[in-house]
Request: fold
Amino acid sequence: MSRVDIALVRGPDANTSMPLPPLGMLYVAGALERAGFRVAVVDAPGEGLSQASFLQRVRMLGAAVIGLSGMTPMKDQIARDAAMVRPLTGRLVLGGVHATRFGAAVLDEIPELDALVIGEGEAPAVALMQWWGSNEAGPPPAGVQVRGRPFVPAAVPKDLDALARPARHLVPHARYRYLFQTRPGFTTMISSRGCPFRCTFCDKTVSGSPWRARSAGDVVDEMEQLSVDFGVGSLCIFDDNFTLRRSRVVDICEAMIRRDLDLHWKCEARVDGVTPDLAKLMARAGCKTVAFGVESGNQDSLDFLRKDQTVGQAEAAIAACGTAGIETVAYVLVGIPGETPESTLETLRFARSAGIDFIQFSTLSPFPGTDLYDLAMERGWYAETAVTNPVDGEERRATLMPPGWSEDDLARTLRKLYGGFYLRPGYLAKQAVRAHQAGMLAPRARLGLEVARWYLSGRQVA
Ligand code: B12
Ligand code: SF4
Reply:
């Protein structure tokens, strides 16, 4: 008899030096446990397992079903993992972004798979296990794609408070680390799903446009549980749009202050979502870092990307955080149509003067299902290049290659931007003092080392 009903597994990944908890899988694991299934999670990158010990662990579990997850850029790894674990189980299912975007085609691409879970996976995964348990009586459940059978999409969960919490007890969560972690004991969480904005490059395959949020009470209950039961001191909230409803952010922060939660946290936000008052309150509630999708310091580029935001809003949000004592991270895109390698350096000037603490410059990736991808295909601007940034998890990535740019231009511009932003004596001194005052010298030095290693390796320059 199998020791577990289902094992959700992530195979070794040589490109990920600092893996984060597999949150999507942990949500699915929580739902399966609640439904009475015996579940295990084997996270090779998180546990630092070699391929041999990963396979040994999975074999020992004797799982009737194995579940895999994956994003499109990792599709080769998904296929590798599927081939590796196939002999160790009776059934193999894939969920996550890649399965959701490409549906039945993935079953052709990866013959080892028996089924796909499309979209948010909690309810469909439970229904699939029950369907397999019933010897496939009736049609496949909603949200499940099986070879040669009709597919019916599952309804997206509207009441996120009703979901089981991620089954964090199934992974060695004390081992996870994050570049922007500010204290020992790190994990991630999600307080809302979806985003109503329409940025051309954004892949909303899984959670789509309708924004669904957990109540402030449920979010803060989970935070309290993380702090008390898991010893979490530093938390990253990975919502697409955490600050969309201001009153909910206010309620979350006030409840954190009232309950005296001693948590440091980071969130991702739009630049139109953080005002000076809100930043002050977030700082009082333990917010240490906000990452903004700044994208560009050029308004025409923002309009091209349909960001529905202005350069002025970015300046104001960054200033509001700075005044409140919150560090800012800006995500900035390189190779936007209409910009040239020279004009992109204007964004560098903007970034330096706006007082941003950290920047992640990335090339624009056209993902299937986005408007940018359709445009790239129509105009012949789609390419795959080795131009990555210091924190990219890929060796090659889908890259927009508009007129006026070559792979070499992108690589050189990225290096100039990173060097121009980070290698400033005044900036480095200021950051060192701030990090020291905040007791964050070690984590910040780690971040600096990652960037320096990438910069000095010169691997971007053709
Ligand atoms: C947090 C995050 C990260 C984190 C952590 C990833 C992780 N280990 O979990 C970090 C920062 C490391 C990261 C890195 C990257 N990311 Co990322 N990331 C996200 C983000 C913001 C949230 C993911 C999340 O936790 N969602 C919440 C959970 C609940 O949803 P979920 O993961 O989709 O899981 C649900 C379903 O998919 C399904 N499911 C998932 N797995 C499984 C497995 C089974 C068996 C079943 C049944 C169901 C199932 O059920 C889950 C519960 O409903 C998403 C945007 C988004 N909103 O999804 C982008 C996103 C997934 N990332 C993206 C990309 C491109 C990347 C990178 C490739 C970027 C880069 N160039 O390096 C790297 C890849 C790193 C790697 N090797 O994995 C893209 C994916 C695009 C695509 N078509 O694949 C997204 C969609 C961002 C975007 N809008 O463009 N990412
Ligand atoms: S980039 Fe951000 S604001 Fe734009 S659609 Fe995606 S999640 Fe929403």
Q: What stands out?
A: The longest helix spans residues 441-457.
